[in-house]
Amino acid sequence: MGLLELCEQVFGTADLYRVLGVRREASDGEIRRGYHKVSLQVHPDRVDEGQKEDATRRFQILGRVYAVLSDKEQRAVYDEQGVVDEDSAVLNQDRDWEAYWRLLFKKISLEDIQAFEKTYKGSEEELADIKQAYLDFKGDMDQIMESVLCVQYTEEPRIRNIIQQAIDAREVPSYNAFVRESKQKMNARKRRAQEEAKEAEVSRKELGLDEGVDNLKALIQVNLRSDSYNLCTLWSICGIIFCFLLRSIPSTYLFF
């Protein structure tokens, strides 16, 4: 069975972009982040022994999807013809996809992540990322706040100010979704973030965890293996940690 048929069977769609949850026009970075996000959900390490075989199959198929879309020639063929070259080297059936994933997403410590946050915030890199997110999502602050690295909902005024300065300087266009965003939409976004933070605190207390590094790691492991896996709740608990996990910097890392 070919890759597209496998995707239809396992993920319910033969569209490789939909499998990764990204746009057809997605950049290399977006495709990488999409692969990382979905792979965390289907990774064999987060399921019980009885589900490992199915999870491994999904994980392997996902690796092949990323291999196609991350290869310029393979992606061009798929975009133009809607087919995949099953005989290509990038789709080698004997490839160790677990090793491939670990090669892409190397380990790092929580301290390294926190150090990255300190150097990233206020940097030219962050400024460029915020502008790019504004352009990618045409001023939709819901999506901008979800996509920019290391951002908490309390920082929205800072992010809005950066974008407004870029608009005033004519570095980016003025999108109605941004300049005319309703108070109702702003308040709804704030309420969602506050509710997620409350859920996160409840989860932390139920598990008897304090805010130490080891316990944050433990909580991540619990969420990754849970049937009620909740990305939003985990985001609120782990802040910069999960932000870093889901939105890769030039080299993406894992510490668990």
Automatic annotation (TrEMBL):
Keywords: Coiled coil, Phosphoprotein. GO terms for cellular component: cytoplasm; nucleus. InterPro entries: DnaJ_domain (IPR001623), DnaJ_domain_CS (IPR018253), HTH_DNAJC9 (IPR056453), J_dom_sf (IPR036869), J_domain-containing_protein (IPR052594). Residues 15-82 form the J domain. Pfam families: DnaJ, HTH_DNAJC9. It comes from the Eukaryota. Residues 176-210 form a coiled coil. PROSITE patterns: DNAJ_1, DNAJ_2. GO terms for molecular function: heat shock protein binding. Acts as a dual histone chaperone and heat shock co-chaperone. As a histone chaperone, forms a co-chaperone complex with MCM2 and histone H3-H4 heterodimers; and may thereby assist MCM2 in histone H3-H4 heterodimer recognition and facilitate the assembly of histones into nucleosomes. May also act as a histone co-chaperone together with TONSL. May recruit histone chaperones ASF1A, NASP and SPT2 to histone H3-H4 heterodimers. Also plays a role as co-chaperone of the HSP70 family of molecular chaperone proteins, such as HSPA1A, HSPA1B and HSPA8. This is DnaJ homolog subfamily C member 9. It comes from Castor canadensis.
